[in-house]
């Protein structure tokens, strides 16, 4: 055997273990398709995997979901570009993948993505993450909603609803304040320090004061969301309405009934924490009957939609009676879901026509 062939044989390596955190296929700056993953190759030791053969994505994804141990033959072990004290596994079209019949250790979930310091998760993993957990994701922006406003501590702040996705699914991301309008449709980003929430019977993400983002390479195998075909827009009159205002604790999110005295402070009945009344989070929601084209429908409306309406029409959000009078006195264009019966947008028709 020649020295050259002997050297090639010596460079061949194999690694066995459990594949985890299989991310979406992306395009590198050199226009090469690749995706990242993590492999548990010892009882509590993990390595980052970079695979430059996109045809192996489904195989590694299935093994990850089923927790099937694999043996990867003809891989390269190279220093990690994120931490030179660690190594990572490079997989290409020559790498052979087969089921590993026996391992000396059991499956253990990786708590972060190969020690990169970010709890990066796929959309599917986020869906299985409890509420109020901080996560990082690498996603593509599928759509950008209109900029609206919400009152927080007596001041309006901007918000925007985005739809984001990767190869495992899609979900809503609510962007607040300075991050509004920072994300472009069809662009991919790594977004860190997001919080998981549960909104309208679905898991969602929201930005925080510590949220950071950076552009990422294009995700090409993103799951396209199903079109929402039950959303319609109608013009008509509101015949009945009931708006309810409540206040919630910033710490535990429990409801806090306001006392009628002049005290500046109040104690949360749920977590027993005492706080300034001005720190309470105000929420308004309600139900209304909407009449259009000789049809009537009962709809629900929530804070963000009401605050946007109030700001556009200079309404006092502390005066629910006045807001109800306004809703009963004018015509509106309302966008709503015929299935969920939830108002997504409401516009005073005279504002649409430019009249005052």
Q: What is the secondary structure topology, with strand pairs?
A:
Layout: H1 3-11, E1 13-20, E2 26-27, E3 33-42, E4 45-51, H2 57-66, E5 69-79, E6 87-91, E7 96-99, H3 123-127, E8 134-152, E9 155-166, E10 169-176, E11 188-199, E12 202-206, E13 212-215, E14 231-248, E15 265-267, E16 274-276, E17 281-292, E18 295-301, H4 303-312, H5 320-329, E19 331-337, E20 343-348, H6 349-352
Parallel strand pairs: 4-6, 10-12
Antiparallel strand pairs: 1-3, 1-5, 2-3, 3-4, 5-6, 5-7, 8-9, 8-11, 9-10, 11-12, 11-13, 14-17, 14-19, 15-16, 17-18, 19-20
Supply the key terms.
single chain; 356 residues; 20 strands; elongated
Question: What report would you give on this structure?
Answer:
The protein is mostly beta strands. The protein folds into three domains: 11-99, Beta Barrel (OB fold (Dihydrolipoamide Acetyltransferase, E2P)), CATH 2.40.50; 123-215, Nucleic acid-binding proteins (OB fold (Dihydrolipoamide Acetyltransferase, E2P)); 231-352, no CATH class. The protein is built from six helices and 20 strands. It has helices at 3-11, 57-66, 123-127, 303-312, 320-329, 349-352; strands at residues 13-20, 26-27, 33-42, 45-51, 69-79, 87-91, 96-99, 134-152, 155-166, 169-176, 188-199, 202-206, 212-215, 231-248, 265-267, 274-276, 281-292, 295-301, 331-337, 343-348. The strands form four sheets. It has a five-stranded mixed barrel with strand order 1-3-4-6-5. Strands 8-9-10-12-11 form a five-stranded mixed beta barrel. It is elongated, with a radius of gyration of 26 Å. Residues 4-10, 113-117 and 351-356 have low confidence and may be disordered.
